[in-house]
């Protein structure tokens, strides 16, 4: 594993208070880490000078009035390239947004800035957050710091490696079908996705709007709790965000007494699961039972419908969301418009811009999404998938009437080789089997590192709970990490 300077914000705060470090020194340290890990292709853009200036201003603020600094004083973060940061470039890993600059800051990011977080840069991701290996970025793949021939996971792959390699303390990602949890599992860190609608999506580039949720990648559950709680809550700019009060997650991470946990045999016996991941999960279940927790296998016969339902619906939503990239409103416009061509100039702008500037995976999803929404097939695919989504939702609700948590592996396998699945995208889709259910049901979920495989790559275990039960989820995840799993 990588030698970390600090594993959580509390340690940073203590060091700052004792005068052992300054914000400036922290930023300098992280910038050196970024410099030393360039071959991994983590950052699309480093905000070096700006972060240093921000750090110096914060050091001064602290010197003058220590009580005036925000809750994230000393926290250096990176942001996935799908989050708006005013006057900074934003591409969603796509050529089509080359040159685009944000006109405003995402609500979630603004809330972190307001608490004195320092943003050190914008990190690589799959184009429009579509992918599971960070291989679909126009900026090239990000590599896993533990094995450069392997993917870091996706789509928040840059975020995961940024944290893994200690180039920042926390990274802000997005999770539509696992994009925070799966890369966290592949990189040996913590990935948390709250309830759908818990955090405003204002300023998050849309992939599939009824699934998208901002999440965190960190070394500790404590940092996930702190950052999530600060980003969460009502926002007049997002009509789907919940106005429920946000409890203080970070101060309620008390260990929970005997909980009731459901797990799915179908997941552990799935044909695609790696035997070591299966065994490690079974061993964890056994230990939890021995400690007095009620852990039971619960029948779940919808597993095989997860991937088709998720991909039909997200592709449909993506095809609609991405229609805004037309060469007129945003970013790139094709330069190859022929005034003498039979197509009108406007039609050529649409067609050529989108043909030249979207990547293969994004095009594939726009085409498939348009197909499932087309008049003749709408009911057979889109309506059917919506019906299955409702069944999945109801099934989960039912389980949570009797259980606090569902526990399953985060992924069936460890990180795969870069390029291994490019000729068969279906293989990549199928590996999302354990993560998409939380997004289909809109419930919160977290991945924490479970163990290291004999191939030396880490893998994770995933906990899910009922909507808006983040305190419960984070508390138990913290307890699991501290009491059961080797590393913190
Ligand atoms: N791998 C999934 C997909 O490609 C999830 C992506 C995400 O959560 N953004 O759709």
Which key features would you list for this structure?
488 residues; alpha/beta; Amidase signature (AS) enzymes; eleven-stranded mixed sheet; 11 strands; 12% strand; globular; binds glutamine
Overall strand count: 11
CATH architecture of the domain at 9-255: Alpha-Beta Complex
Which stretches are poorly predicted, pLDDT < 50 over at least 5 residues?
A: none
CATH superfamily of the domain at 9-255: Amidase signature (AS) domain
Task: Give, in spatial order, the strands making up the sheet with the most strands.
Answer: 1-3-2-4-6-5-10-11-9-7-8
Ligand set: glutamine
What is the helix tally? 16
Using the coordinates above, name the CATH class of the domain at 9-255: Alpha Beta
Radius of gyration computed on alpha carbons: 22 Å
Secondary-structure element series: HHEHEHEHEHEEHEHHEHHHHEHHEEH
Mean pLDDT: 96
Question: What's the structural blueprint in terms of helices and strands?
Answer:
Elements: H1 9-17, H2 23-36, E1 43-46, H3 48-64, E2 76-80, H4 107-114, E3 118-123, H5 157-164, E4 170-175, H6 181-187, E5 190-193, E6 213-218, H7 221-231, E7 260-263, H8 265-268, H9 275-290, E8 294-297, H10 303-321, H11 345-357, H12 360-373, H13 378-402, E9 405-409, H14 425-430, H15 436-441, E10 445-452, E11 458-464, H16 470-483
Parallel strand pairs: 2-3, 2-4, 7-8, 7-9
Antiparallel strand pairs: 1-3, 4-6, 5-6, 5-10, 9-11, 10-11
Helix pairs in contact: 2-3, 5-6, 7-16, 10-12, 10-13
This protein binds glutamine.
Residues 129-132, 155, 175-179, 207, 314, 432 line the site of glutamine (GLN).
């Amino acid at each position: 594993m990588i030698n970390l300077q600090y594993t959580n914000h509390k340690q940073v705060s203590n060091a700052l208070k004792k005068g052992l470090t300054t914000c400036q020194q922290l930023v300098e340290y992280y910038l050196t880490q970024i410099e030393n890990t360039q071959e991994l292709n983590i950052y699309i853009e480093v905000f070096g000078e700006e972060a240093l200036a921000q750090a110096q201003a914060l050091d001064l603020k602290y010197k003058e009035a220590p009580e005036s600094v925000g809750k994230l004083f000393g926290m250096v973060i990176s942001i996935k390239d799908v989050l708006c940061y005013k006057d900074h470039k934003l591409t969603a890993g796509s050529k089509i947004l080359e040159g685009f600059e944000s006109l405003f800051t995402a609500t979630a990011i603004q809330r972190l800035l307001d608490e004195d977080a320092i943003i050190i840069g914008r990190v690589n991701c799959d184009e429009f957050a579509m992918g599971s290996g960070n291989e679909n970025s126009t900026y090239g793949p990000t590599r896993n710091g533990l094995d450069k021939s392997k993917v870091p996971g996706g789509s928040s792959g840059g975020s995961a490696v940024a944290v893994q390699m200690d180039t920042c303390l926390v990274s802000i990602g997005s999770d539509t079908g696992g994009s925070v949890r799966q890369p966290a599992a592949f990189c040996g860190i913590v990935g948390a996705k709250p309830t759908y609608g818990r955090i405003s999506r204002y300023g998050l580039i849309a992939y599939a709007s009824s699934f998208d949720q901002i999440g965190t990648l960190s070394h500790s559950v404590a940092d996930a709790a702190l950052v999530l709680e600060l980003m969460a809550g009502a926002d007049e700019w997002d009509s789907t965000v919940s106005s429920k009060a946000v409890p203080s997650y970070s101060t309620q991470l008390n260990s929970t007494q005997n909980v009731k946990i459901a797990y799915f045999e179908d997941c552990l016996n799935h044909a695609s699961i790696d035997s070591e991941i299966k065994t490690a999960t079974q061993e964890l279940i056994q230990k939890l039972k021995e400690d007095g927790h009620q852990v039971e296998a619960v029948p779940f016969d919808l597993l095989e419908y997860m991937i088709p339902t998720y991909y039909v619906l997200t592709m449909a939503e993506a095809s609609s969301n991405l229609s805004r990239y037309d060469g007129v409103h945003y970013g790139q416009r094709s330069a190859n418009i022929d005034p003498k061509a039979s197509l009108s100039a406007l039609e050529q702008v649409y067609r050529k811009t989108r043909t030249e500037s979207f990547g293969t995976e994004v095009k594939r999803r726009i085409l498939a999404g348009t197909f499932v929404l087309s008049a003749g097939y709408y009911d057979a695919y889109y309506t059917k998938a919506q019906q299955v989504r409702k069944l999945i939702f109801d099934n989960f609700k039912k389980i949570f009437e009797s259980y606090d948590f569902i526990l399953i592996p985060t992924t069936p396998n460890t990180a795969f080789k870069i390029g291994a699945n490019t000729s068969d995208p279906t293989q990549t889709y199928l590996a999302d089997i354990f993560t998409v259910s939380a997004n289909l049901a809109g419930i919160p979920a977290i991945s924490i590192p479970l163990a290291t495989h004999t191939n030396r790559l880490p893998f994770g275990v995933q906990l899910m709970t009922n909507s808006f039960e983040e305190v419960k989820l984070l508390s138990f995840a913290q307890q699991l990490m501290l009491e059961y799993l080797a590393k913190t």
